[in-house]
Design goal:
With about 325 residues, the protein is of the alpha/beta class. It is built from 12 helices and 15 strands.
Length: about 325
């Protein structure tokens, strides 16, 4: 199969490229900068920006399918940037698929599109989209997912996957940033940190995208639908963070910020950051929501329609991450951007 992976230079997109290449597909990646790891895999690299419709169309040309992983992530930044990249960029991908005769599009979305700030325990895909968003990222991803699923047709079959907190070896952002803040003594446990959350190991998340690609066709069960993708192993948020820190080679979180104080503090920090234009504050209301509410999901539908099973268990993934982390000398360890 001739597949384009947008965001192939990123963490999850790179894992998708590696799995596609390993099984013999013709893989092309679309990202902003060249990546030596993709070159070693034999991936054809097209450089460009999702906001450039012509560049997207050139990358899509000649492909049988597209796996759309590229996005602007994070919890802080101008709403316009998130809209231009995640919404308009996705519209460019859809338009290119239609004009170039691509039959299948797998879109990487996020569970945050349904999170309203309350507990989600064993939630399934029947949940409606959130109507309240505390950050531009989940809002933009909700708009993009609706575009993708609304575009499902007899000519272009579409599906959206919602992997939750992707982690594993090679992560350049989430776990390294967490570990760096822990080493500097800047991490706090918010309240009791006992609410359970889901995560997903990177290889499992990548495999889910290949499974969706293979089962997607006009009128097939996955067409026009969204699926949660997780480990199926929800754990308390405090335990999850401490386990990831252990895997990164650093200690657990030992200091606590009361939950009653966290939200007004986050609001004040956000106000100060916007007023003084000092960049992302150390705590946001979106982050407080993520750390103080349960958000774990029922993955029955993904198993039934996609054949998804998280093959790498959480404990095995933690061991793999620790082995990879400790193999990198301290002076070469990745630092957060």
């Amino acid at each position: 199969m001739r597949v384009l992976v947008t965001g192939g230079g990123g963490f999850l997109g790179g894992a998708v490229c590696a799995q596609l290449a390993a099984r013999g597909d013709s893989v092309r990646s679309f990202q902003r900068r060249p990546q030596p790891t993709l070159e070693k895999l034999g991936v054809e690299q097209h450089l460009g920006d999702l906001r450039d419709a012509d560049a997207v169309a050139r990358a899509v040309a000649g492909r049988d399918a597209v796996i759309h992983c590229a996005a602007l992530a994070g919890t802080w930044g101008p709403a316009r940037d998130y809209y231009d990249i995640n919404v308009t960029g996705t519209a460019h991908v859809l338009a290119a698929c239609r004009s170039r005769g691509v039959a299948r599009l797998v879109h990487c979305s996020s569970p945050s599109v349904v999170h309203t700030g309350g507990d989600l325990e064993g939630a399934d895909e029947s949940l409606p989209y959130a109507t309240r968003f505390l950050a531009p990222y989940p809002h933009s991803k909700a708009l993009a997912e609706r575009l993708v699923l609304g575009a499902d047709s007899a000519r272009l079959a579409t599906v959206a996957l919602r992997p939750h907190i992707v982690w594993g070896p090679g992560d350049p952002h989430f776990v390294p940033r967490l570990a760096e803040r822990a080493r500097r003594g800047r991490l706090r446990r918010i309240g009791s940190a006992t609410k359970r959350i889901d995560t997903v190991y990177v290889d499992n998340a990548a495999e889910a995208h290949l499974l969706a690609l293979d089962r997607l066709a006009p009128g097939a069960p996955p067409a026009g639908r969204a699926y949660f993708i997780t480990q199926g192993d929800p754990r308390p948020v405090g335990e999850t963070i401490d386990q990831l820190l252990w895997a990164a080679g650093t200690g657990p979180v030992t200091r606590e910020l009361p939950e009653w104080a966290a939200r007004p503090l986050a609001a004040a920090l956000e106000y100060g950051a916007r007023t003084l234009r000092t960049g992302e504050p150390p705590l946001t209301r979106f982050l407080v929501d993520q750390l103080t509410t349960a958000h774990w999901f029922d993955i029955t539908a993904a198993g039934r329609d996609l054949g998804y099973v998280p093959r790498v268990g959480t404990d095995e993934g933690l061991l793999r991450l620790r082995a990879a982390s400790l193999a990198v000398p301290a002076e070469r360890a990745p630092t957060p951007e």
